């Protein structure tokens, strides 16, 4: 985990809790979607919109004040799509203790200026190959 750079980092606030006082799973998913979307649009060199979210698990819990870091990587590319696997790690506010609190997969479609699906550019594929090789 320490060798990776987070796609997004944010602190959970009281408004982010569910009726039971824990951090709301929907808030976690939205932060993960923001991080994954940032990666997809950067690598895709343009607009990338979520078309599906799947395989979500919430193996841990986080509290108000904890810091959430979202990490992700492109695991597949299609003609016009990109699949991003995401992991969310919580760090306790006043310590270095971390917990994996969520994981899931987002699929994005890249869009052109008229909001029509467009092909994944070769630069994206080259960058992904470089990441896969080291």
Automatic annotation (TrEMBL):
Keywords: Hydrolase. InterPro entries: Cytosol_ACT, HOTDOG_ACOT, HotDog_dom_sf, Thioestr_dom. It comes from the Bacteria. GO terms for molecular function: long-chain fatty acyl-CoA hydrolase activity. It holds the Pfam family 4HBT. GO terms for biological process: acyl-CoA metabolic process; fatty acid catabolic process. Residues 2-114 form the HotDog ACOT-type domain. GO terms for cellular component: cytosol. The keyword DNA-binding does not apply. The keyword Cell division does not apply. Belongs to the acyl coenzyme A hydrolase family. This is Acyl-CoA thioesterase. The lineage of its organism: Bacteria, Pseudomonadati, Pseudomonadota, Alphaproteobacteria, Sphingomonadales.
